[in-house]
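Chapter summary example: a protein plus iron/sulfur cluster.
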Amino acid sequence: MRKEAKYYRKLEDNKVECQLCPHNCVLAPGKKGICRVRVNREGSLIADSYGETISLTSDPIEKKPLYHFYPGKEILSAGPNGCNLRCPWCQNWTISQVESSTSYISPEQMVKFAREYNSIGVSYTYTEPLVWYEYLLDTAKLVKDAGMVNVLVTNGYINEAPLQELLPFVDAMNVDVKSMDDDFYKKYCKAKLAPVLRTVEIAKGEGCHVEVTNLVISDLNDSEEQIQKLVDWVAGIDDRMPVHFSRYFPQYKMNNPPTPQNTLEGAYELAKKKLKHVYLGNIHLPGRDDSYCPNCGNVLVARRGYTVSLTGLKRGRCNECGSETDFVLGNAVGER
Ligand code: SF4
């Protein structure tokens, strides 16, 4: 399905400039952008991937990962075929970096499916949902109208104006901050760091629930200095913003060995000195994916894989010390 794109301008000789993400691709007629899904067709920018869905399934919200937003709930999850970054370690490269077959799902059908799945809403995920922008906007509005929530799992690589238009419809985001080094973003992702950080800062400022993921890659971004930079930046925004350090495994074009367990444990310990909510993902280490009360240390939410128990919460407060906690609960599973 095709739809004229938002956020572009027409140039001489039937060229167009896409203004959705910081690549600002200038495209001659017939050419596709870096994301491979926005095309110059006879002097107009067309979103070729409108509603074209690579995958549709119901996931635990913890899989996004979001640990402080409706814990224990299921969310309908969908994504497009494409991405505006080029990370050589991409875990989903078969659907993000190469052309794959898709099925069209209209915004109305997506809402219907979310209801049928008894989902809290829709998560736009798996690849890079921001390159699905027009569909995202149309669907997110209908999802909100239906009383459900919208979740973005994203690399955060978007220009400010389209982000601002989208944010009122987004309830929660997990943003993948791959490194705190601009040269790293340039070398490996073919992108820039600053717009990613700006997306997190703006989303937080607008009241969106935000969690950050950092894939810790052995010998690439795993130094104490890199981890400390990330921690300091998060602490400067909000020390209660959850951070997930995720373990890397060799994938796609990257052959570095899997991130050692002690590197992840080191990142966890370093981050816990400044941040209230730190988690380790893609590895099971007891206690490292539980949520603790920042005041008294009580276990508020215990996790074993995707089994979630809200054992330490009572009406959103710690059941030991009575402190307020940092969860968006809705009618989360198991709250007392
Ligand atoms: S969204 Fe796609 S076409 Fe538009 S600027 Fe970004 S990579 Fe280029």
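Key point: The mean pLDDT is 95.
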